[in-house]
Prior knowledge:
By secondary structure, the protein is an alpha/beta fold. The protein has two domains: 16-217 and 310-319, Alpha-Beta Complex (Spore Coat Polysaccharide Biosynthesis Protein SpsA, Chain A); 237-307. The chain is 49% helix and 17% strand. The chain has helices spanning 29-42, 60-68, 85-95, 112-124, 141-157, 174-181, 190-197, 220-234, 237-267, 274-307; strands spanning 16-22, 46-53, 74-79, 100-103, 128-136, 166-173, 201-208, 314-319. The protein has an eight-stranded mixed beta sheet, sandwiched between helices. Helix 2 links the parallel strand 2 and strand 3. The chain starts with 15 loop residues before the first strand and ends in a 10-residue tail after the last strand. The relative contact order is 0.16. Bound molecules: uridine-5'-diphosphate (UDP) and magnesium ion.
Amino acid sequence: MDHSEGTSKSVSRRTVALVAPLYNEEAVAPLLIREIEAFREAHPEVVEVILVDDGSRDGTAEKVRALTAGKSGYVLLQFSRNFGHQIAITAGMEFVTADAAIIMDADLQDPLSVAAKMIDKWREGYDVVYGLREEREGETVFKRATAWLFYRFFNHMTDVQAPRDTGDFRLVSRPVLDAYRRLGESQPFVRGLIAWLGFEQTGIRYRRPPRAAGRPKYSFRKSLRLAVDSITSFSQKPLWYAIGVGMTIALLSMVGIAWALLQKYAFGGVVPGWTSLIFAAFFFGGVQLFFLGVTGAYLARVYEEVKGRPRYLLRDVWRSNGDSGDAPA
Ligand code: UDP
Ligand code: MG
């Protein structure tokens, strides 16, 4: 009698997992685990903590093992190398067995007090509860400005209306986890894909505190990569823009040619146009290279998908041994 199919109202809403990616987070690991343990005292429904070591080069994995060895419910997934934040949280979500998962950064910029509110919203019946960043403390003006621009640009460029000013901090329910698993993109843009999935979604506003310890792991290069991935995976608009710009320039140049011919034959005066020529050469060279790059970005995505390589490789899956009996009934 499977009449529950598709109605997320009837699924179990008891146990919760936390999922956090760690890349060279030796400095925050002890703080993170202390916070999580304090949170679990008050929230026994958190039965699982999945930490993904994204190929750290410092002692992150050893530290996590030492700190959680006697505790219940910890799983440490160790990647064979650095695959990136988006893939790390994807792997984490795939390992969740609980009824819901909360995806959070390891550096405590996504406060657990907000996670508690997410769990309440989930119990009310929502399937996705995302964090809306009201303010960003301790982040550079450059980072805030590029992030602001990015969310607006993304919504303009794509047909997915992803909520603005959200990161990956969110709670996702079991039906969403199962749906997400069916998407096999090699370079997933997680928050966009989750918005695309649908379901009942809502947000919680919060102030984003600064990083608890250590240095940011998202370089400008990684951020730019994320932005390009996000747009090329959700939109073909840049390609249409390229066609539009190309056609406009072609039309304008025909007008220009007509004007030049008129000058030469009707009025007899030919302008000595070195300056305009050189500018035109540079300008059109630039435009052409830019749009060739845009096309290339799409081609690169197709190339990645066609190769069909696994998204990540695990070196080790480690479980803490403190499991006292099993999860609550
Ligand atoms: N991270 C990761 N792989 C990477 C880069 C970052 O798993 O290649 C993790 C990092 O350990 C942290 C989270 O992603 O838990 C967010 O990174 P960070 O705090 O540097 O980003 P920001 O908060 O500045 O956006
Ligand atoms: Mg951070």
